[in-house]
Amino acid sequence: MATLRREKFSQSSIFRSQIAAAVAVGISLGCICAIFFPSGFFAFTRSSPDIVRHNSNVKVESLQCESTERVNQLKSDNVRLSSVNSELKKQVRELNEKLRLAEKGKDSIVTQNPLPSEQTKAGPFGTVKGLRTNPTVVPDESINPRLASILAEVAVRKELIVALANSNVKPMLEVWFTNIKRVGISNYLVVALDDDISDFCKANNVPVYQRDPDEAIDAVGKTGGNHAVSALKFRILREFLQLGYGVLLSDVDIVYLQNPFDHLYRDCDVESMSDGHSNATAYGFNDVFDEPAMGWARYAHTMRIWVYNSGFFYIRPTIPSIELLDRIAERVAREKAWDQAVFNEELFFPSHPGYIGLHASRRTMDMYLFMNSKVLFKTVRKDGNLKKLKPVIVHVNYHPDKLQRMNAVVEFYVNGNQNALDPFPDGSN
């Protein structure tokens, strides 16, 4: 029993000693905290939200101020850069204009058909059609203001008939414009190559234009024969096209029976009557050349077509058309060649080594509507059905007795004299 009481007392003494030690440690820590943290542990924590809020307000105000200044700076930069951009655009325009003028001053090749800005896909089989109708040029009235004023009064829908004439063809010219008036055509013009024709046209109320003096043209125009005068038209017509007008070029040995403008397609650069006298010769045919010495390869196929007549064709104001006129005028002046031969060579010959062909579209006129005198006197007048057809024009190009045959054509088609054509031979005597 005594031993048990001693053990309990010993345990109780240890417990009280532990409590006393804990209290002593606590008091010691309290003294230390009182010395180093006089305001307590939570004083800083309680005031920190106010400090944070204060700092936040300062930062927001700073950001707002900074943002406003930045926006103003950006606006200022935008104005400055816009001004610089405008100045650069102006300089680019000036440089492009200088480049254009520089290229215009040299013998550069004019692009006839600019490539489209975007490539296109081909459509389904049988639906694809290539470009036939080239765009017209921008009219330039500065090249001849006087002619521009005349054409503005005479032309209908920017089209007109144009004929060149001097005193050598005066009787034929009278038949020419008399029948034009009778048909009711108002959009036609005579380019007078001498004063006598100018006065003659004015006396007969015929629209006339006489060019300013030009020694190179006047020397031929006043005294030249039919072929010489015909060659001049390619130089003179250029101004008409530059002014933006479609021209139906006409020799004066032509009788008008209908308005030709009602029968044009206007889908090509050049639309011309043919010297052909049948479907094959007028529109083309496969001509087989036979060379027996070649044996198995004796037959060679060739393409043939009779020439276009340079005395009656419609020409649109396009770049290829103007290039055609330039080529012909230059060659006729240099080579002393026949203008009709050159007209066809430039239209038909393809590009080949040493030669760049003309990329002009062309159409052959209906040979029975736009009739040459070989078709009329060799075929039509002998055929009962063909005699009933009324052509648009008859061009007396195959026969030298032009005036007599022109009058006979008027008698036959206008006055109804069915025997008017009979006295004339198929060809010429």
Structural notes for this entry:
The chain is built from twelve helices and twelve strands. The radius of gyration is 49 Å and the shape is elongated. The protein has a seven-stranded mixed sheet, with helices on both faces. The longest helix is centred in the first third of the chain and has 62 residues, at 43-104. The chain is of the alpha/beta class and 429 residues long.
From N to C, what is the helix and strand string? HHHEHEHEHHEEEHEEEHHEEHEH
Low-confidence stretches: 1-12, 41-61, 104-115
Mean pLDDT: 84
What's the total count of β strands? 12
Q: Structural class, please?
A: alpha/beta
Radius of gyration: 49 Å
Number of helices: 12
Shape: elongated
How far apart are the first and last residues' alpha carbons, in Å? 180 Å
Strand-residue proportion = 5-15%
- Helical residue percent band: 40-55%
For the largest beta sheet, what order do the strands appear in spatially?
3-2-1-4-9-6-10
Biggest sheet architecture: 7 strands, mixed
